[in-house]
């Protein structure tokens, strides 16, 4: 069984790195549209009710110092990825991996500063690398998921994952959902013991769905509806649900 999973991981990796640049860029454009509606200003965002900034085409999370990190922080990893690809960063960003704005009010008070403009310029110019960063996260997702599953559950997850990544439409669904709602393996990313990541979606799908993408979307919708119902009342997550469900519908569109 371990040999099968190793083969799967390697085949998944080979598929992603073999994708033509046009396909990668289209996936990145769709993610940027989902998160920011292709807005350059939307590359630097702080959602009302959150305690972190959301940056880049994937709205990567960046926490200020000493803020509780309920959701997985991804922006510092993106910065390291850009450095590894020899991207020249603004000086101030070279000096810290901690968000310099302590709250949403500070963030928007500084929204038109040269610091913020430098950040937006960087995030606009590195869109392709951000897409590669998102894909790299998907490449490692299988082993992360399998590590927390009993052996009798692993084949079901692998089979669905394999089938989804066989074409660009299914690959886009996987990539976007992982970027959008995570893997579902982080202990803090649950409400009332229920997660909402890729793992939970795949676990709740049938083993042989008649229409793979359709069932993925419908299952994900139920998972996110459950998330909203389980969320603390003060978060008022119902205000985001319509947008989340509309985003899932983009997985059904012809790629």
Short description:
With 255 residues, this protein is mostly helical. It has helices at 2-18, 21-36, 75-84, 91-94, 104-109, 114-125, 127-139, 141-146, 151-164, 168-181, 198-203, 212-230, 238-249; strands at 44-45, 53-55, 60-62, 190-191, 194-195.
Summing up helix and strand content along with how strands pair, one would put the structural category as mainly alpha
**DSSP helical segment count:** 13
Read across the widest sheet, the strand sequence of neighbours is 1-2-3
Question: How many β-strands, per DSSP?
Answer: 5
The proportion of residues forming helix, as a percent range, comes to 55-70%
Number of domains: 2
Radius of gyration computed on alpha carbons: 18 Å
- Shape estimate: globular
Major β-sheet profile? 3 strands, antiparallel
Order of helices and strands: HHEEEHHHHHHHHEEHHH
Strand residues, percent: under 5%
Task: List strands and helices in order, with pairings.
Elements: H1 2-18, H2 21-36, E1 44-45, E2 53-55, E3 60-62, H3 75-84, H4 91-94, H5 104-109, H6 114-125, H7 127-139, H8 141-146, H9 151-164, H10 168-181, E4 190-191, E5 194-195, H11 198-203, H12 212-230, H13 238-249
Verbal overview:
This protein is mostly helical and 255 residues long. The protein folds into 2 domains: 20-139, no CATH class; 140-255. 58% of the residues lie in helices and 5% in strands. The protein contains 13 helices and 5 strands. The chain has helices at residues 2-18, 21-36, 75-84, 91-94, 104-109, 114-125, 127-139, 141-146, 151-164, 168-181, 198-203, 212-230, 238-249; strands at 44-45, 53-55, 60-62, 190-191, 194-195. The protein has a 3-stranded antiparallel β-sheet. A hairpin with a 2-residue loop joins strand 4 (190-191) and strand 5. The longest helix has 19 residues, at 212-230. It is globular. The two termini are 33 Å apart. The relative contact order is 0.12.
